[in-house]
Fold Transmembrane protein 91.
Amino acid sequence: MVSSAGFEPITLRFQVQSINYYTTLPAVNVQRMQRPSFWLGGGGKIFRRISDYVGLAVFSMLCCFWPLGIAAFYLSQKTHKASVKGDFSGAISASRQALWLAVFSIIFGIVTYISAIAVLVSYLTGKPP
């Protein structure tokens, strides 16, 4: 059954003390929701969503200096686990460390690539470095 707005009602099934109940909620607009940037935590405090920098960590692990990238990826996963558990101070600390390790990995990788190209060009032209 579709309502006049074109939305289908949602049917819920739940059990209370061995008695089954069925109920139909009114038609609602079910849309994909974005992750909130703020949420209400315990004690009524408002927390900001903590970035885990997993994309940056994967990029630094695959394209730059992989040992630091692996450490950054580990810390990004630690950030996510800590924020799920509610340890926001630990999550913020791990997030900051993941960001810095990923950035250092990218910088070190770029410096390594540039110096390798310089040595290769110097070797192929016959001039000593």
